[in-house]
Amino acid sequence: MCSSDLPWPELPVPAGMDVEALRQVVSGGPRLIWGEGFSGARLGLIMDNPGLRENREGVPFVCPTRQTLRHALRQAGVAERDVQVFFLYKARPRRAYDREAANSFCLPILARQVRLSSAELLLGLGDTVLRAIFGPGAAVRDLRGRWQAFGDLPLLPSYHPLAARRRPNLQPLLVQDIAVAWARLRQGGPET
Fold it and tell me: Would the CA dihedral through 15, 21, 160, 113 be positive or negative?
């Protein structure tokens, strides 16, 4: 098994976090994943929740959504070591949950996580993330291509890798947005 077949490293859960509350707020599975990728990375991706990391036999694997994300990063010229992924929900939902309550509970935790990270610029991937941050009417189709802010950091809205996987016409747009964010970061950081 090569390294591209394995999940990215998980970011450690900070001491004092109420792991059970983070799982329960989204009716989540038993695994809590604080984030993944590389903790010193300057490019932060905000996604809704962690994907599957093991198959039924417990063997680590990269789910199709993460495969799509990795492919988009490669196409945009971004190395995996330059990325860290933050999750709005730290557990993968298993059944219906109260989205408004989950957002109210999880958004301040995400904001603190991002603030304490090395990320200098963010991509907000998918409507779930954008609605949590900007309100229930927010949508990628309306915000894509227009820089926003999350805390003190610039945030570029884009399509979720799952949407790009299901609708291949969105894949070039995801790649383009990643490339735009990466170029801005490389040309001097978030203020340029």
Answer: negative
